[in-house]
Amino acid sequence: MKFGIEFVPSDPALKIAYYAKLAEQQGFDYVWITDHYNNRDVYSTLTLIALNTNSIRIGSGVTNSYTRNPAITASSIASIAEISGGRAVLGIGPGDKATFDAMGISWVKPLATIKEAIKAIRGFHAGQKVSMDGEVVRFASAKLAFTAGKIPIYMGAQGPRMLELAGEIADGVLINASHPKDFELAVEQIRKGAEKAGRDPSEVDVTAYTCFSIDNNPEKAVNAAKVVVAFIAAGSPDLVLERHGIPVEAKSQIGDAIARGDFGALTSGLVTSRMIEAFAICGTPEDCMKRIKDLEAIGVTQIVAGSPIGSDKEKSIKLIGKDIIAKM
Ligand code: F42
Fold first, then answer.
1. Which residue, 35, 49, 97, 316, is the most exposed by fewest CB within 10 angstroms?
2. What is the domain extent for residue 11?
3. What's the confidence (pLDDT) of residue 269?
4. Which DSSP state fits 128?
């Protein structure tokens, strides 16, 4: 099992670089930085991390092919690879619809867009002159003016078709989920895609990009996870809620509380223990370890400790290092 950690650059890049260094010292293999227009820029943050770490692999987790042209993405991540001495990984997905709505970008053909973008980026990294007339992505004749080399590409995916596509074309897949039930289905789809493409499914790094909250005091861990779990529940398809036995009506109640900014309602009852169980790896180191072992048995090969990580990030990063990574 490999371990990654996710940071959202709603915090200043210097603070994130500090946490990334701490994670490296604790034995984490990957650090992933999210990409949304309203936060600090992902590549500036990755640059600072690269300059402050030595061995941890660093990636966008995830960028998208709507707000950034694939040629720009190819150049940006290749620059990070150069700055970091070959530690860069590109995480890319079709992006977050809510932020695109705010930006006035229409979310057309996400599956085709991501497939074509990855093909183009691989071409740029291989030093090719890229000419493409895809359904969405088009290049007349474009080429990077510097050598990039091979950079692993991970896809952000949850839906069955996206997971299958990841199995066909990606080096890894970042799956926003935490529960074995979701991964049983996901691993099956990835395997289907890999087999369709004539690949060995074990070539694909199956990554659980989780909501993670660890503390020696289980109550503290749960309290820290509640707001993140509320956002996940509010954004989950009905099918996913039903899979976990969560009433579909809860989604609108939680959505209304989020819209009102009533975080007290979320923490004092709207977010149930069933939701925490479904949407987070949460609890003491022993609780978290048990869930990680369950995911490993299904075929998960990387655990990403995502927000909130714990009520005290620094303490939680150290706890994961000492009581989980060191004991795997
Ligand atoms: N998005 C961000 O913008 N920023 C982030 O930092 C970020 C991090 C992140 C981390 C992990 C992760 O798993 C996802 C993350 N995302 C982030 C979201 C990511 O960018 C993707 O939006 C998300 O992973 C995709 O969700 P999804 O797999 O459910 O895919 C969507 C597009 C979907 O609906 N998929 C369906 C499916 O079955 O997989 C199929 C859709 C389909 O087939 N569409 C057709 C097509 O051609 O695209 C066309 C349909 C039509 O009518 O146009």
1. 97
2. 2-327
3. 86
4. P
Q: Which pTM was predicted?
A: 0.96
166-185 b/e (C-beta count within 10 Å ≥ 16 → b): bbbbbbbbbbbbbbeebbeb
Say how many Å lie between the CA of residue 156 and the centre of ligand 1: 7
Q: How far does CA 247 lie from the centroid of its chain?
A: 26
Over residues 254-303, the pLDDT tens digits come to 999 988 888 888 888 899 999 999 999 999 999 999 999 999 999 999 99
Query: Which has the closest alpha carbon to 8: 30, 27, 33, 38?
Result: 33
Ligand 1 proximal residues by C-beta, below 6 Å: 34-36, 61-62, 64, 93-96, 109-112, 156-162, 174-176, 209
CATH of the domain at 194: 3.20.20.30
Q: For residue 151, which amino acid is it? A: I
Share of the chain above pLDDT 70, in %: 100
Query: What is the number of domains present in the chain?
Result: 1
Q: Is the pLDDT of residue 146 over 90?
A: yes
- Measured from the CA of 92, which atom of ligand 1 is nearest? 20
